[in-house]
């Protein structure tokens, strides 16, 4: 096994709190001023663990997306998904919801009135490459995902490929998203694809990743060229690994849209406001979210390092 890159190649990306609707606050970890993307992963929100007993939980009315895939992964709680394709799915822990926006889709996310006391999970975005971003929208729900037990660690491949295990979810670029559950204090070596760059999010517990101590809610960017990763936990912990081939297409990200130019974003916003392109979310009585006002300057495309074009 070859040596991993030096620890200096790692960048700690602390999150910041962002309100999501009226009742939920998330920790936003990507995009970050130090690192906009990890592979095609361009957006990471971590929410909870929260006590939502006697509270509404997640309440996000219909809103649009373009140019991305959304990955919703729950550890605790329930979310009811509806979209403009007519999909209606209750999201439960350990099951993957993957929504591909393509040219455009709208969806809503609500915690049902009868729900567990806890809420904890992730929502992540994957940027679609040019040859897929104008394609048709689709929705996938996967209850069965490849998983393996290695000592005191359970590894579940949520999306993409890790080692010889591949998720059934449809993707458009080489990537991985995997949950790592440490059931007790343990040391663990995880094999990686050195062609990928990677990041590790700690969802709960305290873990040392590649020599860096991490607390819950932190994302460590690991760079590329690693063929393995050393993990050590002092007790039970839960991590989420993201990675992929470096994504070299410049992006414009604004509100819920991922495009390639200022004009892409203006067009999507105009069509959402006019009730065009994205369709209606059947079965949801909430009013759609209005788009915010555009900035007074032109939006600039940025590469994965944050450089403008």
From TrEMBL:
Belongs to the pirin family. Pfam families: Pirin, Pirin_C. Residues 183-277 form the Pirin C-terminal domain. Gene3D superfamilies: Jelly Rolls. This is Pirin family protein. InterPro entries: Pirin (IPR012093), Pirin_C_dom (IPR008778), Pirin_N_dom (IPR003829), RmlC-like_jellyroll (IPR014710), RmlC_Cupin_sf (IPR011051). It comes from the Bacteria. The lineage of its organism: Bacteria, Bacillati, Actinomycetota, Actinomycetes, Micromonosporales. Coiled coil: none annotated. Residues 26-126 form the Pirin N-terminal domain.
């Amino acid at each position: 096994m070859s040596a991993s890159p030096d620890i200096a190649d790692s960048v700690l990306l602390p999150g910041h709190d962002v309100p999501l609707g009226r009742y939920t606050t998330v920790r936003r970890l990507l995009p970050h001023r130090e690192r906009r993307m990890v592979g095609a992963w361009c957006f990471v929100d971590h929410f909870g663990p929260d006590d939502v007993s006697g509270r509404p939980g997640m309440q996000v009315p219909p809103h649009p997306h373009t140019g991305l895939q959304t990955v919703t992964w729950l550890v605790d709680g329930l979310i009811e998904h509806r979209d403009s394709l007519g999909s209606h799915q209750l999201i439960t822990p350990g099951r993957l919801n993957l929504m591909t926006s393509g040219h455009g889709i709208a969806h809503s996310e609500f915690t049902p009135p009868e729900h567990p006391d806890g809420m904890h999970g992730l929502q992540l975005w994957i940027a679609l490459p040019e040859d897929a971003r104008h394609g048709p929208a689709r929705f996938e729900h996967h209850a069965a995902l490849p998983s393996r037990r290695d000592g005191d660690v359970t590894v579940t491949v949520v999306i993409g490929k890790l080692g010889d295990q591949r998720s059934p979810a449809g993707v458009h670029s080489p990537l991985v998203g995997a949950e790592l559950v440490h059931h007790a204090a343990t040391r663990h070596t995880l094999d990686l694809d050195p062609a990928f760059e990677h990041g590790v999010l700690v969802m709960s517990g305290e873990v040392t990743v590649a020599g860096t101590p991490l607390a819950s809610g932190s994302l460590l960017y690991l760079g590329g060229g690693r063929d393995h990763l050393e993990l050590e936990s002092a007790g039970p912990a839960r991590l989420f690994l993201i990675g992929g081939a470096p994504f070299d297409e410049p992006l414009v990200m604004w509100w819920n849209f991922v495009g390639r130019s200022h004009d892409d974003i203006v067009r999507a916003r105009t069509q959402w406001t006019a009730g065009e392109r994205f369709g209606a979310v059947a079965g949801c009585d909430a009013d759609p979210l209005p788009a915010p006002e555009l900035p007074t300057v032109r939006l600039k495309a940025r590469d994965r390092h944050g450089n403008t074009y």
